[in-house]
Amino acid sequence: MTETINIILAGPRGKMGTEALKLIERTEHFNLVGCIDRKNEGLSIKDIDGLPDIEASIYTNASEAFDRLNADVLIDLTNPEVGYENTRLALLHQVRPVVGTSGFSDEQLTTLEQLSDENNTGIVIAPNFAMGAVLMMRFSKMAAKYFPNVEIIEKHHDQKLDAPSGTAVKTAQMIQESRQAQRQGHPEEKETIDGARGAGFDGFRIHSVRLPGYIAEQEVTFGQTGQTLKITHSSMDRYSFMSGVQFAVEQVVEMDDYVYGLENLME
User: Fold this and answer.
1) Is 229 helix (H, G, I), strand (E, B) or coil?
2) Which CATH number fits domain 5-125+239-265: 3.40.1080.20, 2.40.50.140, 3.40.50.510, 3.40.50.720?
3) Which residues bind NAD(+) (predicted)?
4) If you placed Cys at 32, which of 23, 56, 59, 223 could pair as Cys (CB 3.0 to 4.6 Å)?
């Protein structure tokens, strides 16, 4: 029998947070002990319209939540500013974070890795929890060894705060690991409108689209004389991320170290 995992969820009223509540509710060995939210202090999740009928208190003070609740894991699905502080506090309380918030700075990631090491507390930060997106990143890394000319186009809903997305940045970093560095395009290329060619990364480009109707989509296009290769992943529903969240939670309780990217937990 699988041992019960006690969970604090940060960001329960967001679209991803709502899906996470449903995941916790339907997963027998998951137990929601409380939530962190910017409002609704003292209420229960079941008291909030549109949320599942779960008895779990809401805290607006994250430190108080970690002090008072007996939790094994924090699931944070907020934003970079709030998510960083929640994650930092979780590590200090030896609660293992599973973080789906993208947009952390390199300095913040370094600090979280140090805190994980100092407190012997596992942490998983995943730019994307969709298993298909993780495979898309892996396949892109494989292809880049043979197709070094590449561009990334990522498309998200128009309420997303960071650009490029964490998934696009992680994909670019993985491509960099196997791609022979080179600057693409014409050496005298000139943008007649600033930003027309997208963001530069290691000699190639990342393009961000923000429009209503999208949830998350990414296309990695490789070009070679006489052929192109496209690796594409689309999430049509936020439910697509939940299998990865569950996988990360079940893995992190057995970990004492820092992991960035779900692919590092997959065989």
Assistant:
1) strand
2) 3.40.50.720
3) 11-16, 100-102, 126-129
4) 56
State the Cα–Cα distance between residues 148 and 179, nearest whole angstrom: 5
Active site residue 233: no
Ligand-binding annotation for 56, yes or no, is no
Per-residue pLDDT tens over the stretch 76-110: 999 889 999 999 999 999 999 999 977 789 999 99
Mean local confidence (pLDDT), 158-169 = 91
Q: What is the domain partition of the chain in residue ranges?
A: 5-125+239-265, 131-236
Q: Is 125 helix (H, G, I), strand (E, B) or coil?
A: strand
DSSP 60: S
49's tokens: 């319209």
Select which of 93, 141, 155, 156 is catalytic. Answer: 156
148 annotated to a ligand binding site: no
Q: What is the largest CA-CA distance in the chain?
A: 64
| Backbone angles phi and psi of 143, in degrees to 5 | -70, -35
pLDDT digits (tens, 9 = 90+) for 240-264: 889 999 999 999 999 999 999 898 8
Q: Alpha-carbon torsion 212, 218, 223, 229, what sign?
A: negative
| Whole-prediction pTM | 0.80
